[in-house]
Amino acid sequence: MVDEAGANKKILAMMLFSGPYGSQEADHMCRIADKALDKGYGVQIFLYGDGVHAQMEGQAPKVFFNVGEAFTKLVEKGAVIKSCVRCSQARGYIDGEFDEEQDRYPSSRSLDAVKIYSMYGFIDMIKKGDRVITFGGS
Amino acid sequence: MVNVVVEISHPPFGHENTFAALYVASASLSKGYEVTVILRGDGVYTGRKGQDEPLKKINLPPTESQVEDIIELDGRVVIDKNAMEVRGIEPDELIDGIEVVDTVEIHDIILDHEKVVTF
């Protein structure tokens, strides 16, 4: 697909399972993703479980690394970020049914940079990823 | 063939991890991937059979039927023998089809795969 990160590149697939500020996992993941993009990898990120809170719009931490801003910058650099619809629905992010045209579930509370998607978005990343790594899973 | 390892070190209830992990395993199997689920640490409690209506009693999904479905779909589920022993879990208490393996074999499975998803 034209809009997928990393056509003809090695793909680094990453899953985030913890929230943006309860631990350093999201921060750590974003920095690795940025470095991977600099090294020429295609980067694909999936937010799962409490990891979907990292998609919230308007994040404004006073001292911590701003994960929301980092996501927007990563996508501008070519990363793809998707999040789990079921996890997002449970946490109040979903405004309606899947939008075929936008290729995402609508969410007024989520960053434009993050596409809320079915779980199969991650299963597809597992297939495409030359490396698959997990953050915040255990 | 896509090969994926799903590693679980949390117990079946109290955290979302195990449910979420088994969901990844099932979804991967449904796409034709080869799946190995590792139960280690407190994850070995997820290997025990005989859960009593967790959905009805504590509003949490039954991980036992998730594991059964994975085995039914030809997913491989292995459990750390050492982690079972220190928790007093006997092989005959396990869900049918789970393989009891030594810790070193779990290390080998992880080292032999490029795609390991950890919960």
Question: Could you walk me through the main structural features you see in this protein, from its secondary elements to its overall organization?
Answer:
The complex is a heterodimer of chains A (138) and B (119). Chain A is of the alpha/beta class and 138 residues long. Chain A has a single domain (11-135), classed as Hypothetical Protein Ychn, Chain: A, CATH 3.40.1260. Helices cover 28% and strands 19% of the residues of chain A. Chain A contains four helices and five strands; from the N terminus they run βαβαβαβαβ. Chain A has helices spanning 25-38, 67-76, 85-90, 120-128, and strands at 11-16, 42-47, 80-84, 114-117, 131-135. A five-stranded parallel β-sheet of chain A has the order 4-3-2-1-5, sandwiched between helices. In chain A, strand 3, helix 3 (85-90) and strand 4 form a beta-alpha-beta unit. The longest helix of chain A has 14 residues, at 25-38. Chain A starts with 10 loop residues before the first strand and ends with a strand. The relative contact order of chain A is 0.25. The mean pLDDT of chain A is 94. Chain B is an alpha/beta fold and 119 residues long. Chain B has helices at residues 17-30, 54-58, 63-72, 81-86, 103-112, and strands at 3-8, 34-39, 76-80, 99-101, 116-118. In chain B, helix 1 (17-30) packs parallel to helix 3. Chain A binds chain B through residues 13, 15, 17, 48-50, 87, 119-120, 122-123, 126-127, 129-132, 134, 137-138, and chain B through 2, 4, 7, 9-10, 16-17, 20-21, 23-24, 27-28, 31, 33, 114-119.
